What does this fold into?
Amino acid sequence: MPPVADACSFCEGQGHSFLCYIILAMYSLEPLKIDLNGLKEGETTFEYDLDDAYFEAVDAPEVRRGNVHVDLVVNRTGGVYSLDFHTEGTVHVPCDLCLEDMEQVVCADNSLTARLGEEYSEDDDLVTVDKDEALLDVSWFVYEFIALSIPIKHVHAPGKCNPAMIKVLEEHSAARSSDGGGEGAVDSRWSELEKLKTIIKD
It folds into this structure.
């Protein structure tokens, strides 16, 4: 049976095959649920290697593919749990220029504080976990850390963009320039403002 990442890459753009859905259904987020009561005092470390199946399992809205390694250190002091995450790897996101998928390096350090309480709640970086269950699911927190570490602007390296899309963009830019939308053109709204300034001076 092929790995999930290979199956998803193969199916991309064609819809997942039946085999791919079976593989994805087998992926479990259970290892990302931490039993706080089961942790000893002091530090406990966790490691996660996340691939395409993880992003599918969390139903990620922006990132659907990637390979990211996560190191998590949980420091328990009485009833307070300090969680320090280090995420590092690559994800696939659309290029801002040509819209084709590109690999984007991600690297981030983030922290959370958890405690047990009457019911689950989140307040900034403080998470209160139901004391009767005492399970902290970090799967979505990890995804948010990954998504937030993606630069606002992400484009392919020079020469790596889809040439057909770049040609369309160049033709569109040339058409706008010929219609008077180039750098020398003055926005009509600015023209009206200039007229108003002249009237005020007079």
User: Anything to note?
Assistant: Confidence is low (pLDDT under 50) at residues 1-10, 18-25. Residues 34 and 136 are 5 Å apart (CA to CA). The longest strand covers residues 101-117.
